[in-house]
Amino acid sequence: MNIKEMVHNLQKVLDEMGETFSNFQSESGLACLPGCGKCCLFPDVESTVFECLPMALKIHREGTLDEWITKLEKADHVCVMWEGNRETGAGKCTAYGVRPGICRLFGASGYYDKNHNVELSVCKLIKETYPEILKKVSEGRTEKNTPIISQWYSRIQSLSAPELLERRPMNEAILGALQLIGFYAQYQTLE
């Protein structure tokens, strides 16, 4: 499989993942606050080179690969794809359609506790804003009515080589993906 096919297959899973988590968040009432981008400001948000490949391929196709590599080499911990007000956190993702998995599931999602019960992972701001909704939604969680983080990451991992799945700070993962796409572009047509 060439890198274009791999990225295409990944994008299909990421799109399905995004739709599943978005639907869950909307239906439950635990969606991200309008205009909020505070999670993009945290240095401990991580992704993988693999999950950032759709973004990197898009940037390559736009002809701005070198510009983004230079920008990333100078970037601090705030995701370079986010634009907004750092003080308030109000902003938006400039690569929303090709964002990695963590960005698609953040807000509210499910995970298994040590007893394999389904628990909710919910953003602190959503918890504080909608405590009654959170309490109601938390009752009766099962894997049938809650998208589970680990199940989606298993699907993503099944598409890639292990060396591309190492978790890194977001900007490092994006930079690694851009460099990999740049390398492949030297040897194959990526259009």
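Second entry:
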Amino acid sequence: MARGLNRVFLIGALATRPDMRYTPAGLAILDLTLAGQDLLLSDNGGEREVSWYHRVRLLGRQAEMWGDLLDQGQLVFVEGRLEYRQWEKEGERRSELQIRADFLDPLDDRGKERAEDSRGQPRLRAALNQVFLMGNLTRDPELRYTPQGTAVARLGLAVNERRQGAEERTHFVEVQAWRDLAEWAAELRKGDGLFVIGRLVNDSWTSSSGERRFQTRVEALRLERPTRGPAQAGGSRSREAQTGGVDIDEGLEDFPPEEDLPF
């Protein structure tokens, strides 16, 4: 099994004022919505900006410290991890991938450009949106082609995490790769180890019952296949992706995940 790695780095503008609350046990929870724009390569070799909004959760003393100091528009750096959660609603099993902050720091905004969406919410241009994961595939990759002939692969990644004083947990992350990287990834098989460098994106769709659903996943920018010893070193392959053409703890049980993202 591949060594678990699970790190997220974000720099963005606070789209709204942070929301502070407490569990019945007194644990502080600070929910923030960061907004930014990634600069990606397009099919014709040019560049284009892609907007993103990500909800981040900060707990405990840091949450209390920053709760009254942060406001809409503030530039913030977040270092954290992805956390997979499951719950039941009306007999149906639900899940979400949440960004849990380990560290947060406000940033100087001098010289930084902002954009504004249709609701007047600020976004940081040339933001930072990067994820590093290492785990094992939970299934064989699913390769398909768009009507324009572009390859796209969906992968399920299980990332094991052992934090000090806690039991080992497994986080399940959906990963998507495009073009040559997708075709390379399609050769992998369930159980293979995989190192992923990518960016976080949110998908949304309407379920058969008319409910609006959301999913956070990782869009791969680079994939590496870990080896398990010198004898296999020659078989390691990697490929960088072209990113254009993308169409698209304790006390927390009292707060099941919200159904709608807060933006």
